[in-house]
Batch of 4 targets.
Target 1
Amino acid sequence: MNDETRLLDREAQQDRCIMATKLKNAALDTLPAGVKGLRYDRSQLRSGILHIGLGNFHRAHQAWYLHRLFQQGQDHDWAIIGAGVRSYDEVQRQKMAEQDYLSTLVELDPSGTSAEIVGSMIDYVPVTPGHAALIERMSQPDIRIVSLTVTEGGYYLSPSTKEFDPTQPDIQQDVATPDAPTTAFGAILAALRNRRSAGTGPFTIQSCDNLPGNGVIMRQVVTSLAQLMDPDFADWVRDNCSFPNSMVDCIVPATGERELALVRKFGLDDAVPVTHENFRQWILEDNFCAGRPALEKVGVTFTDKVHDYEAMKLRILNGGHQIIAAPAEILGLETIAQSMQNPAIRALFRKVVLEEIAPHVQDVPGMTPSAYVDLVDRRFSNPEILDTVRRVAFDGSSRHTGALLPVIREAIAAGTPITGLALVQALWARMCAGTREDGSTIAPNDPVWDKLQHNASLAKQDPQMWLGMDEIYGDIAHNVGFAATFDRHLRSLWTKGVAKTLENYLNS
């Protein structure tokens, strides 16, 4: 591209910015052609849900389902109040407030890109030290569901036991200052104490994170923290609040310059647009102590078999993401779609999942594990979804332990193949050494990156130094067959490289 072309391109981008319609309530009646608007009056919405952790996924998933319900003229008293507990959440709140909490959702599909405005969120609680504003808002009787997306690593669980860890500093701080807590869970309990005293009653506490038995985990964390504060109050929480299990699914890339430019092409000026694939799934246990919206009318599945859906998704999709991410990062590939264009990585995904993971996954109504593998293959391969390898690889210490290590344990117990699963762990170890095969640096990408990188560096000479992380591998490291296979794969990755190691595995 020559200088003149660059100038013209820059001027065209500036023209689009000038002509773009600023996303606000006042613009809803004059949206650009091709942008789907609202069929409901936002001034008539009333709050019913407070959501903590209001990132892209929530706005493309839970908020979209509520929006669809509102579009049908249903349940307008279940609008969403956004909230956060980290300082960076306040930046997001200010951006959202400037556009009246509206979001542009851009669907990325190979057959065509489309945009719609979602208006199901009507407010966002200011983020303040001690979370006084958040506690006060959750204390109000109109809030009947408090939902959360705080990532798999945000539940203060011991990495080795997956049980609530009361020794973590944030938890200790909540116990010491229960009226000015640090964590979302401490804020929830402070609000519940207020509601108990006022006779307002409990609310449902709903996890929307990718954790096996996320409702069970949520119950354990909240009631265990309450027990440390006041055993009598803890009993009240156990007896009155509900904690439904759920499974959520939609691929939602992070927002960057590409996404900002994409929404401008639709004639909109949105500071925080969201892009997403043409697929969503929400499986819910019908366990809501203070009522719920009629989400079954917009495609949400209510069932007491959430675990079966959850296991299929966590093991095949989330586990599949980790299978792909490590070799892709080592080879310097940027997106998951690009990674699926690499024949060896795509073949690795399909072979490991079909041969070693799918046998440990149950059918669900309308879907077998093998059919789900094909579905996930198509979703991962969508060239319109620029889902970065870095985003998918983030927090592998939580994602591997949640999605892949349980399968390894079951496979060892059942005597089924583990060769590919051992290779995936070797690839993760190789990635965490922090360098690609071209010599470039892999930036820290895990809350415990320093420890992972230290052990990965030692494992270059002695692979057992990686498996020796008991808080991650526990008893898996003591299985002679798994340890030997892992050892062989990791040595091959360092001496022969990713391509040759994958070739040897795929031809075995």
Target 2
Amino acid sequence: MNKKELVGKLADHLDTSQSAAGDALNGVLDIITAELKAGNEVNLPGFGKFIAKHRPARQMRNPQTGEQMMSKEKTSAQFKPSVGLKDL
């Protein structure tokens, strides 16, 4: 399922237009993204948890040249499903 199909199903489920459903979905995604950028987690009981995972800089090796170098520190998004979702 892609985003367009998800918006269509959401519009049918809420009995609203696809435009309104798309705005609602975009709003939710924007809020989750902003919270993760701020370093917060977003917990949705019964579904799962979105976590901002910080990865510190580390030393690594270029496999082509064998040269040692430092990777950049970064923050990435991680999703942990709830127990109810795992059982599906």
Target 3
Amino acid sequence: MSTFQGLSIALSSLQTQRRAMDVAGQNVANAATPGYTRQRVDTAAIAGPRASLSDGVRGWTTGSGVTVTQVARLTDRLAAGRLEVATGDAALASARAGVLSTVEGGFAEPGDSGLTARLGAMWGAWSGLSEADPLGPTGDAARVTVAGRSEEVAASLRQGAARTTSTWSDVRGELGTLTTEVNSLATSVADLNRLIVTTEGTGAPAHELADQRDELVRRLSTLVGATSSPRSDSGAVDVVVGGQKLVDGGTAAGIAISGPAAMDGASTAATTVTLGGSALAVGGTAAGLTEALTTTLPGTMAGYDRVAAALATQVNGRHGDPAVFTATDGGAVTATTITASIAPADIKAGNGDRDVSIAAGMASLSESTAGPDAAWRTFVVTTAGAVSAADVRATATATARDSAQGVLTSSTGVDIDSEMVDLLTFQRAYEGAARVMTAVDEMLDTLINRTGVVGR
């Protein structure tokens, strides 16, 4: 090895260790940056020149130093894929639980403002009428109470229907906002894909851009259950939702909402998310919202309607003409249209002057296994069971998501202790290379300045 080759070897080590320290510093600086993936410098020895026969040495001489082969991004595609799936599942379960919790909260059960209490007050008013003198002042007062309590029950059902309609509108608006965000994120992912391909084409790494893109993909996983698939021909990824490509390399597609803009009671048509005009099997939050618009909230309205229909059918059937409960639009009684607009004077206690059989029979409806109270209890209990199951599912999927995040972080995140050890190693290697360069410089100084002049 020539003296000048020694300088070259030392220089290559200085440059390599400096690059390694720069990468370690970048890792430390971004240890708390969300989505940052740890980087590592890969190095390789440089082979030396082949010795000439005149050197009396066969084969290769001493190597020529060290070089950086690449700055690797320590990603874990398997762990990242699992996190994307777990994120979508957790978002779906959370959205479902949130809507059901809102529905259950509207019941106000148990409580004085709940339908159970108002039905009880109405049956109590009928019982009071059965105990009063139908032809006297107490009977007149009891009829006024019956009319008032009956309208309170009708108002409670209308309020429940109105809350359901309002919730439907809120969820529909949230889905619209989600759609806009998804399309914006998809465009950003496609833009980053193109920038990554361009950057890597120049030979420079694009790791920070890839980190930004993967964070956007995980956001898409939350919103629509998206998963990513690396392209074999470049550093870009495709983003897939329900088997269809939302992002195809550098090209982004857009999703839209198909379905009614307003709720039409229990018969509300289905709401779907479309991609390119075709229905898209979304996951994540979007799946929870479309489920709420298509199934959960129309089902809730149907539950209110069943209670309203049972109330009108059984009370009107016992009372006879005129009906106690009617529809404001003159059609079939639903939770949206039910009213008790009967005049107190038209309320009948019985079929004769002092007969109170009708009022007594009304009071007994509270104990009927097929009465309005039973229908309401079934509705409330069924909803409570769905809420409980949804909460359990939301907790389980959130735990699975956190576990998947932990696995990804452990394999791709920055460990400060490890980086400090690496940084110390690179520092010592740099110092060693500097010492080699100093030694070679001293050797050259001896040869140049301290040897005799040839021919003296």
Target 4
Amino acid sequence: MSLINDMLRDLEQRRKQEPQQGAAAAPTPVHSRPGKHRLMPVLGALGLLLMLLLVAGWSYYLPRPVAPDVNLAAAGLQEELNPSPLEPAALETSILKSDPAPLIHPLLTSVNLVQEDQRLQLELTFNPLPAHAEIRALPQQGQVLIRLPETQLQSGLVVPQPQHDLIRHISLMPTAAGLDVIVAVAAEQPIATSQRLDPLASMLFIGLELPGTTPAAVEAGAEVIIRTPVTVSALPVASVATPNSTPAVSPLVSPAPIRTQPLAETDQQLYQRGLQQVREGNLGAARDNLTTALHLNPELLVARLELIGVLQRLADEQQALRVIEEGLTFHPAQSELRKLIAHYLLSLQQYQPALTRLEADPLPALAADPDYHALRAVIYQELGEYSRSAQLYARLLEQRPRESLWWLGLAIALEQQGLATGARDAYRTALDVSGLRPDLEKFVRERLQYL
């Protein structure tokens, strides 16, 4: 190092001397020994090496200029595409916004109705329960409104209808906000409401107190409105109680639920039940259900005809006759009831009253009810009016030419008029088409032998 320092001092000394010499002055020749000439190239090489080292050191320690990687516009775009890391709470909010959980709308799955005297209860079943419900009675509008926000209606849902003079009907009306249950009542009738929730069964019970058993405040005629909408919680919410806090009272606490008997069945339901009991051979129960159906709806003809058949099988002819006569007051032109009363009168040999019933206006067309007119032909024979009987049988056989009993009736009517040839042909045809009972077939053969 001392050698290098000496060389540096020598070099610096020469730099100071060069400016003092003239630009045109020629260097003074130096005469030295041959050894000094060999030392100069070595010193020059060492000086050059030292200069290179100095330049390299200065360049290493000098500050370096930093060039931007991207321009400002590109940097702003990059920051927008790659935002800075979020705090945990902000990150959770971002995830919820970008991938929201699917929304499940409440679904009304069934509507049940129970009624007793002046009290009525609606039982609404959901899947799942709605977040809240609003219930209000509107006497001036003749409605009790149950508003179920964001609730949808299950397709094919059957809504039972009450049997009360003050309640007209119950309807479901989907709206943009959800679903409305509307109980239409008589106008200006104050209706008190109560409610109860069963979260385990996902059911909401709405009690309606009709006039007659309503509280005095309701009877005064004031509009009854649930001041605070009924809140239906799908899941129980746990609350943290402080030492001085009092337990929260649920707004769903309401009067005791209405305990009623099931609604009475309709006339159609009673008829269907009675019909099934007839098929099962339970005639006593069928008689009771069919009788009740007619009590609810005396004009239900199918139930009346079925009840008449049951009474006849039970050999209760007097009651069957009363049911027939009552039916004719509601359906005087009904051909089945007319035939039934005519058969009953024929069994009593009351031929003219039976014919009178059958020939009352309006008469059914012959093609529409041939059996009706065949019964008329039988009564004509019993009354001795053989010509009218034969003519009617001939018309009937044009409709059903293979009816052996009608051929037999025609043969008897012709024989009674003394028309042996026509009677013989009719008897033979009755045998040819077959279908006669053995005793009637024997009778026909005897008449052929006679003729």
